[in-house]
Amino acid sequence: MLSSKELQELLERLFPIHRSLTGPGNVKTLEILKEFIPGLQIGSVRSGESAFDWQIPLEWRVYDAYIENMEGKRIVDYSDNNLHVVQYSQSYEGKITREELMSHIYTNVDLPNAIPYVTSYYDDYWGFCVSENFKKTLRDPEYVVVLRTEKFVGNMHFGELLLPGKSKEEILISTYICHPSMANNELSGPLVATSIAQHIVANKKQQLYSYRFLFLPETIGSIFYLSRNLPKLKKRVKAGFVLTCMGDNQNWSFLGSRYGNTLADKVSIAILEDRGIKFDSYSFLDRGSDERQYCSPGVDLPVVSIMRSKYGTYKEYHTSEDNLNFVSGESLFESTELMLEAISILEKNVTPHASLLCEPFYSKRLIREQSRENRKLTTYNKKISDFLAYSDGTKDLIDISRIIGTTFDETHKICCELLQAGLVRTRV
């Protein structure tokens, strides 16, 4: 598991890299992550390949992009901030009027000093992004625009890491690598996923489940991966998480699966409530990331999202203010810890079934104490009785903990005690 300091250093190293749906920045990002999780496989798919209703886009590269005033001074330069270019802009070079330039300029009026993130993935178009305050300074009658880009039949890259466990059933952890320099919306997910993977690799005790980590371009990447692997995923995935927006220090957020009734939903709520974390809960109607694909009709994988500030709810979202000042290694470390606790619950969660009919004779097993007046059980002893009362083979430990009002850890402790005494049997 990466320390807060290591997460901060890796964040700062990855932040300047220009990522998009395709391009060398994605490969560079994956190669850096591979330094920390050597088993990461970097795969690719060719432009034009079908993926359900979609096609893999052309590869896109930016070689140079700037705007000059009539004095020959560069006033907007892609080398200063890769958010300056509308993603997937086509090439353009020439002198244009201020009026024409304004039709290709994007700002965020609510954050007048921020550069917005704008895309034109599937249209032939070009544009620049600047701050609203800077736009107001553009008063010259003409400007020179240079956009040297290239779209060509190339590849879309993605990363995949499978850590086998005792079972072929899998926990899916998916994140994305397709945004330029934005720290929370882009890099927090891959960093937390990398830290989780490193922890699992370093853990000498083999885990029960297998863990599949995906580093994809958002939307088209998950659609592509599902188009090639859906039968396997439907058969194996026990629970899944989309990791995004996990690096700020704001309130926690949870976005459930389509019907909110999967194991991933249960474990997420359990860990947040057990830790006494105040969190904002969102339904699938508020979806916006790759849970849209994983939970779509016919796919129906048990996938949810745990976040700090949900995407789209914080003012810095999709702007240059989602930067290194907005995210910290400490918050990334906390998010890793929370996800590892959720994984711990998944690993320990079983479904108990009472071994005896009727209430067992506790006294001879020295499990439960009761006063001679036979009036009242201690709190813990009552929880033992309540646990057994719901150990009918239909409820797992998470369910029982919610019913009898205990934390998962306490419920697991009771289960282990009763298992040792032969009063319950369990199944995963």
How many structural domains can be distinguished in the coordinates?
3
> What name does CATH use for the topology of the largest domain?
Aminopeptidase
Number of separate strands: 18
Backbone shape:
elongated
> Would you tell me the overall average pLDDT?
95
Rg over alpha carbons: 26 Å
The CATH class of the largest domain is: Alpha Beta
Order of helices and strands: HHEEEEEEHEEHEEEHEHEEHEHEHEHHHE
Write out the strand line-up for the largest beta sheet, numbering strands in chain order. 1-10-12-11-13-16-14-15
Low-confidence stretches: none
Tally of individual helices: 12
CATH architecture assignment name of the largest domain = 3-Layer(aba) Sandwich
State the CATH superfamily name of the largest domain. Zn peptidases
Distance between the termini: 27 Å
Question: Sheet bearing the most strands, described?
Answer: 8 strands, mixed
Q: Could you list some keywords that capture this structure?
A:
428 residues; alpha/beta; Aminopeptidase; Glucose Oxidase, domain 1; Arc Repressor Mutant, subunit A; 3 domains; eight-stranded mixed β-sheet; four-stranded antiparallel β-sheet; 18 strands
Structural notes for this entry:
By secondary structure, this protein is of the alpha/beta class. The chain folds into three domains: 4-57 and 155-348, Aminopeptidase, CATH 3.40.630.10; 59-152, Domain of unknown function DUF2172 (Glucose Oxidase, domain 1, 3-Layer(bba) Sandwich), CATH 3.50.30.90; 351-427, Winged helix-like DNA-binding domain superfamily/Winged helix DNA-binding domain (Arc Repressor Mutant, subunit A, Orthogonal Bundle). Helix content is 32%, strand content 22%. It has twelve helices and 18 strands. The strands form five sheets. Strands 1-10-12-11-13-16-14-15 form an eight-stranded mixed β-sheet, with helices on both faces. It has a four-stranded antiparallel β-sheet with strand order 5-4-9-6. It has a two-stranded antiparallel sheet with strand order 2-3. 43% of the residues are buried.
